[in-house]
Design a protein that fits this description.
The protein is mainly β. Helix content is 2%, strand content 65%. It has one helix at residues 59-63, and strands spanning 2-12, 16-17, 20-21, 25-38, 44-55, 66-68, 71-74, 82-95, 98-112, 115-120, 123-128, 131-145, 153-168, 186-195, 201-203. The strands form 3 sheets. The chain has a 9-stranded antiparallel sheet, with no helix packed on it. Strands 6-7-11-10 form a 4-stranded mixed sheet. A two-stranded antiparallel sheet has the order 2-3. It starts with a strand and ends with a strand.
Length: 204
């Protein structure tokens, strides 16, 4: 079993756009985490984790404004941090010089910072308006194997499926129930490392 706590202190000072001076801001957040595991034998491991996490806005989201002939991009100096609750259940099977793991995850994030577009007087205005709630659920397969086929080759592979949905968006309710655009359904990574000698490796 494990317990964790992350504390973050965030400040924004001397922000301005043209002659407009933004108020200084200070935010503090604490992110707890809990994890519990069970190992019935040397081959199997089970673990459940739940964590709270925040993402504070970055400079571009707060202050970067851009005027174009066909529209305007506006920042939002009043953005609040994203507020996420993350669950993960993992099942791991030990292999000879490696392991196979499956992660099942579910995330709920409120106040997701995202640029939304509106048309005003035939001009497109793009500004950062939080999406109220986005949920993501999915699964990840992880396979790690050292000394593959007794060839001094290490293999790392993972495949992830994620279904991310906009559950609530008061700024544009027509987007509710739609797929969140920044989250691909499928992602995969493969890394091979060849141990040429005790001093040299090559990978790709």
């Amino acid at each position: 079993m494990g317990l964790g706590l992350r504390y973050e202190s965030w400040e924004s000072e001397d922000g301005f756009y043209g002659n407009v001076q933004h108020s200084d801001r200070s935010e503090n957040r604490a992110s707890p985490k809990f994890s519990i595991g069970y190992e019935p034998n040397d081959l199997w491991r089970f673990r459940y984790s739940v964590a709270k996490a925040y993402r504070f806005p970055i400079v571009e989201e707060l202050f970067q404004n851009e005027r174009r002939t066909n529209g305007t991009s506006l920042a939002n100096a009043n953005l609040e941090p994203e507020d996420g609750l993350h669950h993960n259940l993992s099942v791991e099977r030990s292999l000879a010089q490696g392991f196979l793991r499956i992660n099942l995850f579910h995330e709920t994030i409120d106040d997701v910072i995202f640029a939304q577009t509106a048309v005003v007087d035939n001009l497109s205005i793009n500004t950062f308006i939080p999406i109220d709630t986005v949920t993501t659920k999915g699964a990840e397969l992880v396979f790690n194997q050292s000394n593959l086929l007794d060839r001094n080759i290490d293999l790392r592979f993972n495949l992830t499926y994620a279904n991310s949905e906009i559950r609530k968006n008061l700024a544009n309710t027509t987007l509710e129930g739609k797929r969140f655009p920044r989250m691909p359904n499928w992602r995969a990574n493969l890394l091979l490392t060849y141990h040429i000698s005790p001093q040299w490796n090559i990978g790709g």
